[in-house]
Amino acid sequence: MSLKDVLSPFTAWKYVFRDPVTIENPLRDRPGAARYRGFHKNDPELCIGCGTCETICQNGAIDMVPAPGRDPRQGDSALRPRIDYGRCCWCALCVDVCMTKSLSMSNEYIWVDRDPDAFRFTPGIDSKRWDSAELGYHRPEHHRLVPEHRPHMGELEPEERIGSFAEIVDGYTVEQARAEADRCVSCGLCIATCPAHMDIPNYIAAIRDGDYRHGLELLYRTNPFSEICGRVCTHKCETVCAAGHTGEPVAIRWLKRHIVDQVPYEQYRDVLAPPAPATGRTVAVVGAGPAGLTAAFDLARLGHAVTVYEALDKPGGMTRWGIPEYRLPYDIIDRDVDVIRSMGVDLRCGQRIGGDVTLGQLRDGHDAVVLALGLQMGRATRIPGSDHPDVRKAVDLLRQATAGEDFGTPQQAVVIGGGNVAMDIARTLARLQKQAFGTVRVTVTALEDFAHFLADPDEIKESFEEGVVILDARGPQAVVIEDGEVAGLKTWKVKSIFDEQGRFAPSYDETDEMIHPGSMVVEAIGQMTDTALLGEDLTEKLAWNRGRLQVDAKGRTSEPWLWAAGDMVRGPDVVSAVADGHRVAAGIHAALTGKEDQA
Length: 599
Fold this sequence. Notes:
It is built from 22 helices and 23 strands. The chain starts with a helix and ends in a 7-residue tail after the last helix. The chain is α/β, with parallel strands linked by helices. The chain is globular. It has a five-stranded parallel sheet with strand order 9-8-7-10-23, with helices on both faces.
């Protein structure tokens, strides 16, 4: 061994106090190819924090972390992906699966830093020099890990359905439901938006697994009206579905229906937990709609004795008397109600408050009383001629149609309104006209233009298919009366609906006038509660705001013995009524068990 060999290793000590060359002078600029997979970029405004990137990462390189200055809101968790480049293998699966296409990769790949923590950062939140880079890897337009469209679900063709009240939608087959369930990325954004906070990702997972009994159990944990909501839920959850940002949202409502369709009804009781031991406390519920029956269901399961008083001869509230059978078959309502009865709920129909029984009697005979009256009265336009007997309220006609009463089907009808109730009565009249006269002559006039229509898009589409004429941006001015009979409706073109302060104050173009012929005019412009049932004294004691009964966070009114829930508090929405029923039941249970301060 030479002397040089001995001394050479020690010459390296001359570099001990010098920076490494890569720190002192980083590698020369070597741009990557145009589609090179380099450091990530993320558009924080487009990102919804769904976490699919974290889920798909095989190396555990992505964590969802709170984004500074952001609060969770509907459809956005306020979390953003933080990437650890000590783990990232640059595979780009996170980019390929991104539900909003907010995540991409720059073509920059050279970055040197002394601090190892610097290689863990949140793209789009932690500023980097490549944030504005245009080149790099973006998900190709037609490359999708999650299919864009739902499976097609069978339904009756317009010419088949218009002649009857048969249910329109067939529901998913097992194969279709599993294919649709596979589109769900289990992000959970839908849970917060659902008024009842149903466990949507897990009941969809139960469909994928073929475990329908478990799926049904999950449904009933939060919604005793899963049969009904599987058909007519307002499905607000779908408006925030991650899949809906670049394709169709997952058909959450139809998947809920699929579960209840697959489990034989006789097995329902095996799925539901038995009620708790009796507490000896009693609760009266006024109104057998979704809110009242949900409260009754919860309270009965908690061991309280519950009696429900319903004015009409069958339970279901507006789901039975306000929704046509072609959307919600009556036997489906009966199944949900029977499950609630099986919990020991005493349901008494034909008991009208203020007539057969008074609220004072209920107050004296029970530990708590729940008002869940619903919105059973239609609002009036009060335009000239609207006091004519052939100017009817949509809710009244729908109730008569459900009861099978003959209200005199008009050969030609005009409906005022643009919401789902307007579509329901228009399509009901269309069916009755088809059966009676062989033709459909129904016109719907709405204040809103089609871009701001209140009715569900499916309702509008199906109404058109069934021959209903829908005219947007038309304001009712007068009912046309000729020789004492209704002859039609006069409307003007709507210029605006609200004033500069956002108040309802429609303005019209009087030069654009139309007469819509019809022997019956139907008002479908909203509903309200019949407060006469409460009596004048109680009505004055309670707090109201624009026709809605005011309650505290637990559903209690200004009268300590009285709680309220449902449409008369929140407005017309089935799943919101269910959520309200849960809330009131929890409040009453806390009050009856001495745990009100803990609720």
